[in-house]
Amino acid sequence: MAKLVQKFVDSYDEDSDTQDAGCVRAVLAELVLTFLFVFTGVSAAMAAGIKLLHPLLPAQFPLFSPLSPDEEKKCIFPLTFGMVGAGSSVKPGEAMPMATLAAVAIAHALAAGVLVTAGFHVSGGHLNPAVTVAMMVRGHLSKLRTVLYVAAQLLASSLACILLRYLTDGMVTPVHALGAGIRPMQGLVMEVILTFSLLFVTYAMILDPRSQVRSIGPLLTGLIVGANSLAGGNFTGASMNPARSFGPALASGDWTHHWVYWLGPLLGGSLAAIVYESLFVVNKTHEPLLSGDC
C-alpha cells in the first residue's frame, strides 16, 4: 500500500495514450466508488428510521435575525444525514438520539475508509468534490480531470439515490438540513470547519512527504469522517461532501439551504489545502499528483 500511495503522490511520465486510458479508469473509479459510498450512507440513514415525506422547515429566514418562539418550534434537527419528517420517531425540535447518530456516523466512517483505500491507487479515491477541488487549487489535479471527477461524483450520487427510492418503494431519501435554531450562515461556518478538518488531516496523513502513516492514511480518513459526523450531525448533518448532499436533494426534490452544502465544503477544503501547503509542508518542490491533459 505504501508503494501505491507513493506512486500516486509522486509525478510520473507516461505516453499520452496511457494517460488517456488512465484518465478514463480514474473517472470510472470515482463513479463506482462514489455510488457505493452514497448508497451505503443514505441507506444507513434510511434504515435508522428516517422516513420522510416533506420537510418541516419554514421559509428561509434572514441570516442573522433572531427566531421567534413559533419559528423555533417549526425548525427541525437533521437526523445526521436527513431531516425529521412524517413517519420519523424524532419529533420536530428534538435532537437525534446519540445511538442513532453514532450508527449512521459509523456507517459513513467505515464506507469512507474502505472505499478511499480501494480507489486510491486508481483515482486517488476522492468520492467528494471538495477533495477534488482542493487538489486542483494546489495544482495536484488538472482542471479537466477536476471537471470529470466532479461530474462522475454527482452522477453517481444521483443514481444511488434514485435506485434507493426504487428499492424502498418510493421512500424519500433523507436530505441534509440545518438543525433547530441554526441559521444558514452558522451552518455554512460549521461545514467550512468540518471540511477543513477532513482535508487538513488528509494532507497531513497522505500528501505530506514526512507522514509516517501514508500507507494506511486512506483508511484512516474514515475516522475523521466519523468524528466530524458525530460533532456536526445534529447541527448541519455534517455533509463535508457536496456530492453526498446533491443526490438526496435531487431524488427528494428538496433543495432547502442546499447552497450551504456546496459553498461550505468547497471553501473549507480549499482553505485547508492552502493553509497546510503554505505553512506545514517543508519540501515544496513536489510535482502535481497527476500530469497530462486529463
* Cα Rg: 19 Å
The CATH topology comes to Glycerol uptake facilitator protein
> How many individual helices?
10
Oligomer: single chain
Distance between the termini: 24 Å
Q: For the residues shown, what is the average pLDDT?
A: 80
Largest sheet: none
Element-by-element helix/strand order:
HHHHHHHHHH
Q: Which structural class best describes the helix and strand composition?
A: mainly alpha
Poorly predicted ranges: 11-18, 51-69, 71-93, 286-292
State the CATH superfamily name: Glycerol uptake facilitator protein
CATH architecture: Up-down Bundle
Q: How many DSSP-defined strands?
A: 0
What does this structure look like?
It is a single chain. The protein has 294 residues and is mostly helical. The chain has a single domain (16-58, 66-279), classed as Up-down Bundle (Glycerol uptake facilitator protein). Helix content is 59%, strand content 0%. The longest helix has 32 residues, at 16-47.
